[in-house]
Amino acid sequence: MKAILIVVLVFFTLACNATDHVLVFPKTEGFRHKSIETGVKAIEVLGADNNFKVTHSEDSKVFLSKKLKKYDLIIFLSTTGDILNSEEEAAFKKYINNGGSFLGIHAATDTEFEWEWYGKLVGAYFVSHPKQAQASIEVKDKNHEATKHLPSPWSHYDEWYNFKSISSDIHVLLTLDESSYTGGENGEFHPIAWCQEFDGGRMFYTGLGHTVESYSNPEFRAHLLGGILYCLDK
After folding, report:
1. Secondary structure of 39-50 in the HEC alphabet?
2. Please, what's the largest Cα pairwise distance for the chain?
3. Each residue of 51-67: pLDDT tens digit?
4. How far is the C-alpha of 93 from the C-alpha of 199, rounded, in Å?
5. d(CA 213, CA 168)
């Protein structure tokens, strides 16, 4: 009995000390956001404070490494353009199919326009944006880890994307009130953060995070952390 108890305690200790591993991938082949470096640092701090390890790389060859499976979550931080070749795309798809998780921040929807599978994974594609502005955000799911701390409406300053090819399968967490700013083109249904179970894995996307200042905003940081924890299935 004592031996069994020791084994159980050892297992419990190892489980509690287990650290999830997150890859932050901010490669750009188009516009490069000034907030990327600040975003990487913010995620590293969130990792240090919440027991997950963060690796930062812009080398797409990481997707071909046998070590890709060691990552519990891959974050596309304001990626733009065609960032993966066909072999790397196949490896990323296999990673998701095997239960991996994906989190997209802001320009992750301005990425891989010619890859249909990615479009379904990320949930929508960027089409345009007006000037940065203060806008009112409605919380559609007040129980999700990424939104339960937010007031509704939530007033936030950022660059607001208009989207095309919005998937009907996404679970919408936040929507924009287009009457609160100028330049919205999605009408009454303008999702700005969402999640979904997809093709064997899970994903989370937030359209926020354009500005450098966003990453020091407590509400946005908690929103981002909630998305990460959702993807890590915490």
Report:
1. HHHHHHHHHHHH
2. 69
3. 999 999 999 999 998 88
4. 9
5. 32
Beta strand 162-164 with 125-128: parallel, antiparallel or unpaired? antiparallel
- Which of 164, 165, 186, 166 is closest to 176 using CA atoms? 186
Under DSSP, is residue 170 helix (H, G, I), strand (E, B) or coil? coil
Q: Tell me which residue has tokens 């995070």.
A: 209
| pTM above threshold 0.70 | yes
Could you give the dihedral angle defined by the CA atoms of residues 5, 11, 13 and 19, in that order, rounded to the nearest 10 degrees? -170
pLDDT of 11 > 50? The answer is no
Contacts for 110 with CB less than 8 Å, ≥ 6 apart: 30, 31, 79, 80, 81, 125, 126, 161
Strand 73-77 and strand 20-25: pairing? Answer: parallel
- d(C-alpha 63, C-alpha 69), whole Å: 9
Cα-atom radius of gyration of the chain, to the nearest Å? 18
